[in-house]
């Protein structure tokens, strides 16, 4: 264990209600602490060398308190008891003096003479647990057993909830600690490739320490991703994926309330999806196939099939050699498509409702998770005001804002998008906005041209913090115009004939949008890399785990 | 249009409030009807030969009512009006004498002298619309225009809601009809590969007609699937996919309420997924990859990553040459995985809550959709009582029930599963039950053996109407035992080493299950083929549309 890990958790003995009752004098305590630390360091080094230290897993048979501790046999559905496990996050003053049973990970352990201090971790919650060998409720053997449990092991801990004199600063449950009466190991951890405390530390803390001349260990992205199931245990990661799940639920619930229904379209498709090189190809029972680059064609067919308003949450596949902070080869698409009566503004109305709900839902219902993320990756909650600018208006803002050379009929690159995001933030006070009426030349062939000027199209992108999270448009629902547009864009008609044909039997005017789930979470939380918001990211160099 | 189609909708003139005000004598009307039918048949034949009949798309410029009808220009987001469209399903007596605007498909048209009868269809709802040329609100040109609109075209229809003397038997909206004052076509349909009325007919109706000596057209499965976007417009299909969406929502909401969170795991994975031949292989940026056969390994990693209780709704891929009624090469997996404290019964508790919610939710909130499905595919709503039988108990029931030869340590084939389903239904009165403690030999290597007898395992299947919809188990969370089990099952360890390793850093005991979404809907609704519950099914012979 790194010293920094201990520092990070900063458990002060003086804060402990148990330790404070101890009578050992300060000098002796300091000596014993130094000895224990030396022993722990030695055991750690031995473990790192792959040498199995003689670790205590079962109690001394002579110990009168032997029933109170030791490794469980493997949990194998032997029996169901009436025992109740309390969640760490629910441990508070209201449970004071009550006996509880907790199953959690051992986050840190520290032995000190006759006492042991453990921090137990369960998802984003941590609590201090204290053993003091008094030979009545806790034996010396029990203390030894507890201090030898490897970090990240899972234990069942019985104890009494105590309110310490001072708050426990290093733990999420500051108002209480557990006075242990029983400890049993459910699953032992082997040597860790990195420390959770190191993986949970903010860059700010590392910098601040460096200024004091102290070098704190950090964990690189590849090492994290190679051991993702361990990396994901950090409080920030636990919170990020709760937020990700929340975004999905708000997306679905908002659209269901707006009359949408969930659909599932195939990811294995014939031909070349929407064309282009960025497609994964495979053999399907002897027939050439590819993985869908989006549910575009199928969600449009669902509209032609009268489903009226549909959404899909599913993986999309892009065989792109992109190594940027915001591209993945597989990501979650939140797609929606809807019949419109007159105007693509009907789609924009839905998109604004959707993001109002996401921004509001996260900042109110998930404030705790956002705070946990911000502890490691500080960010300001983004602001939301509905704002629609036309593409020409956006170009004018850029021209006035220091980019006079910007092409009024070209696409915006990442730099220009970010610049526009900044200008909009300053001028309108929102981190969210919609840019619509893009030039036709920079949109796909199935985009409906504007009626008044076909140089422009009934299309839109949506931005958070100056980065695109949504692309969408009114689609061409007229087979003749679609053929014309495809031809003009150089798309071989034979590859999309069945798609074109699906608009020939009465096609509702419609529009839609595709949202990148990982991007929404990344940009909402101001994170710097999309790999942080994908549970098991896929990029050109990473296919495992 | 088939005559059967008209018969099916059985719109009786005498039921029409508009027609009943007409003064034309019966003889003349009959003559004109015959003439109109002849003309319609002629136009149809011409259309079928690919000859474009001279169809009226714009009003006669001399018609004083020319503003009331004609094709719209293409809807292209020109402007947004304040017009409000009324849904067909909401047309009822409460709107009597009110003027409404409806956008819907032309389901059928029939001209008769100075009058025209249209049935408009919007998803599962239909309503009759009537035009009678009185030269005040409706001109002869308007009637002609209306009768020439091809079936499946989308129209905007203005009209006044009228309550007919007798209910309109052929429509879902029986209590009202629309007296048309304006009709405009939004999107014209070309020649249909089959008639919606033919595709919507029940086998029972075809049989009954055959007994009368009448042959009604039917539409085969391949023709339907080749034109799936048209086939999906039938009321039964509209209802099936609303039910499918509902099952998804109930699945998610029930599990969210039980403390689960939604995750998304990669479908592109290295190696061979869970092994075996039934895997789609592809090249991933020069590295061999495959499509995940299930999220099994990843959802278990999510548990090792402390997510505690997770679910995933995502596609699963099986490269199996199965042509049965219940296998697909791509289907939607509803997966769940959860840490357990002691026993896999904790998972079964969740599964029973889940299906109680699904059965209850469908039969109460989706009774209308179930009735629509039953119109074409008659079925009894299945019964739900929680019931758990051990595998040996199931074997005993089969042995007593006419299958004395059944292997007590073998797997159950489809015939035996169905037989057991029948026996259970008779004895316990439930279409749903859980069979647990399967022989270890018939379960995957990662299944936890029973503590008291490793011949059996902590595993389970769940059945509806005697067909399996769920497979699941407590998993082996101990790396040593997992290695032992894999070796015993002949799995090459090097292919699963990283999976095994993920249990070495403290692994919570856990279990889970995988549900096939299409199977749940198929079996709940007593449908005979899983292709009916997959929007765009994939089987060894079908990759399109």
Architecture overview:
The structure is a homodimer of 545-residue chains. The first copy, chain A, has 545 residues and is of the alpha+beta class. The first copy, chain A, has 3 domains: 3-74 and 83-187, Beta Barrel (OB fold (Dihydrolipoamide Acetyltransferase, E2P)), CATH 2.40.50; 197-222, no CATH class; 235-533, BirA Bifunctional Protein, domain 2 (2-Layer Sandwich). Chain A has helices spanning 3-9, 26-48, 140-147, 196-199, 203-211, 221-226, 228-231, 235-257, 296-304, 345-365, 367-376, 391-400, 414-428, 479-488, 497-501, 517-524, and strands at residues 69-71, 99-112, 115-122, 125-132, 154-162, 177-187, 261-262, 268-270, 281-284, 287-291, 309-317, 330-339, 388-390, 432-436, 459-464, 467-474, 510-516. In chain A, the strands form 3 sheets. Chain A has an 8-stranded mixed beta sheet with strand order 7-11-12-17-16-15-14-13, sandwiched between helices. In chain A, strand 2 (99-112) and strand 3 form a beta hairpin. The longest helix of chain A is centred in the N-terminal third of the chain and has 23 residues, at 26-48. Residues 1-24 of chain A have low confidence and may be disordered. Chains A and B meet through helix 7, helix 8, strand 7, strand 8 and strand 9 of A and helix 7, helix 8, strand 7, strand 8 and strand 9 of B.
- Largest inter-chain contact set: A-B, 110 and 110 residues
Helix content of chain A: 25-40%
How many structural domains can be distinguished in the coordinates of chain A? 3
Could you give me the name of the CATH homologous superfamily of the largest domain in chain A?
Answer: Bira Bifunctional Protein, Domain 2
- Gyration radius of chain A (Cα, Å) is 29 Å
Beta fraction of chain A: 15-25%
pLDDT averaged residue by residue of chain A:
91
Number of H/I helices of chain A: 16
Q: Shape of chain A from CA axes?
A: elongated
Report low-confidence residues of chain A grouped into runs of 5 or more: 1-24
Please report the total strand number of chain A as a whole number. Answer: 17
Structural class of chain A: alpha+beta
CATH class of the largest domain in chain A: Alpha Beta
Query: How many angstroms separate the termini of chain A?
Result: 26 Å
Main beta sheet strand tally, sense and closure of chain A:
8 strands, mixed
Keywords (chains A, B): Aminoacyl-tRNA synthetase, ATP-binding, Cytoplasm, Ligase, Nucleotide-binding, Protein biosynthesis
Main location (chains A, B): cytoplasm
EC number (chains A, B): 6.1.1.12
GO cellular component, one term (chains A, B): cytosol
């Amino acid at each position: 264990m790194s010293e920094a890990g201990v520092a990070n958790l900063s458990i002060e003995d003086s804060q402990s209600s148990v330790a404070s009752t101890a009578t050992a004098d300060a000098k002796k305590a300091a000596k014993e602490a130094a000895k224990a630390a030396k022993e722990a360091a030695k055991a750690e080094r031995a473990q790192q060398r792959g040498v199995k230290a003689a670790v205590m897993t079962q109690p001394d048979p002579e110990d009168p308190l032997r029933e109170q501790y030791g490794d469980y046999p493997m949990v194998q559905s032997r029996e169901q008891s009436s025992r109740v496990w309390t969640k760490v996050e629910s441990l508070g003053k209201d449970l004071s003096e009550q006996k509880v049973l907790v199953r959690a990970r051992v986050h840190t352990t520290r032995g000190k003479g006759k006492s042991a201090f453990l921090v137990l971790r369960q998802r984003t919650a941590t609590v201090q647990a204290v053993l003091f060998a008094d030979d009545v409720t806790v034996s010396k053997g029990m203390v030894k057993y507890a201090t030898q449990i490897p970090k990240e092991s899972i234990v069942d801990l019985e104890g009494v909830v105590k309110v310490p004199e001072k708050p426990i600063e290093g733990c999420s449950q500051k108002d209480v600690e557990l006075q242990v009466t029983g400890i049993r190991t459910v699953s032992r951890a082997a040597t860790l490739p990195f420390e959770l405390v190191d993986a949970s530390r903010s860059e700010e803390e590392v910098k601040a320490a460096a200024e004091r001349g102290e070098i704190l260990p950090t964990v690189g992205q590849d090492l994290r991703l190679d051991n993702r199931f361990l990396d994901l245990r950090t409080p920030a990661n636990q919170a990020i994926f709760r937020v990700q799940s929340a975004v999905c639920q708000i997306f679905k619930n908002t659209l269901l309330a707006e009359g949408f229904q969930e659909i599932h379209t195939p990811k294995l498709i014939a031909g070349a999806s929407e064309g282009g090189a960025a497609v994964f190809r495979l053999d399907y029972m002897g027939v050439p196939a590819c993985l869908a680059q989006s549910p575009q064609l199928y969600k449009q067919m669902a509209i032609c099939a009268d489903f009226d308003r549909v959404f899909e949450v599913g993986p999309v596949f892009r065989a792109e050699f992109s190594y940027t902070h915001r591209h993945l080869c597989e990501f979650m698409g939140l797609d929606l498509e809807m019949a419109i009566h007159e105007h693509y503004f009907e789609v924009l109305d839905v998109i604004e409702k959707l993001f109002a709900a996401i921004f509001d839902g996260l900042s109110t219902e998930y404030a705790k998770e956002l705070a946990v993320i911000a502890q490691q990756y500080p960010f300001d909650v983004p602001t939301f005001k509905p704002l629609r600018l036309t593409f020409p208006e956006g170009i004018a803002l850029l021209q006035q804002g220091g980019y006079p050379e910007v092409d009024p009929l070209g696409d915006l690159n990442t730099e220009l998008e970010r610049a526009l995001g900044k200008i909009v933030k300053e001028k309108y006070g929102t981190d969210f906005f919609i840019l619509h009426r893009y030039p036709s030349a920079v949109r796909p062939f199935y985009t409906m041209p504007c009626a008044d000027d076909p140089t422009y199209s009934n299309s839109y992108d949506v931005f958070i913090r100056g980065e695109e999270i949504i692309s969408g448009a009114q689609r061409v629902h007229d087979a003749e115009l679609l053929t014309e547009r495809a031809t003009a864009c150089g798309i071989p008609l034979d590859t999309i004939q069945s798609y074109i044909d699906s608009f020939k039997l009465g096609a509702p005017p419609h529009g839609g949008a595709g949202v990148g789930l990982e991007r929404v979470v990344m940009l909402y939380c101001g994170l710097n890399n999309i790999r942080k918001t994908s549970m098991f990211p896929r990029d050109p160099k990473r296919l495992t785990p």
